[in-house]
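Incident log, support desk, overnight shift.

02:14 A customer reports that sequence design results differ from what the structure should imply. Their input is reproduced verbatim below. On-call engineer (initials T.W.) acknowledged and began investigating.
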């Protein structure tokens, strides 16, 4: 079964200006392809 046609558009978010541009581009791409948009943010917990 090929599920790639239903895959979401995934973009990393880090709060930078470049990251926000990437989010805008990914949102446009998701809308054009009629796919869900998934934002991913990772962080390191202080010890």
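02:41 Re-run completed on a clean worker. Output:
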């Amino acid at each position: 079964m090929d599920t790639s046609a239903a895959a979401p558009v995934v973009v990393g978010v880090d709060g930078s200006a470049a990251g926000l541009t990437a989010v805008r581009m990914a949102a446009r791409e998701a809308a054009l392809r009629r796919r869900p948009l998934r934002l991913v943010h990772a962080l390191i917990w202080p010890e």
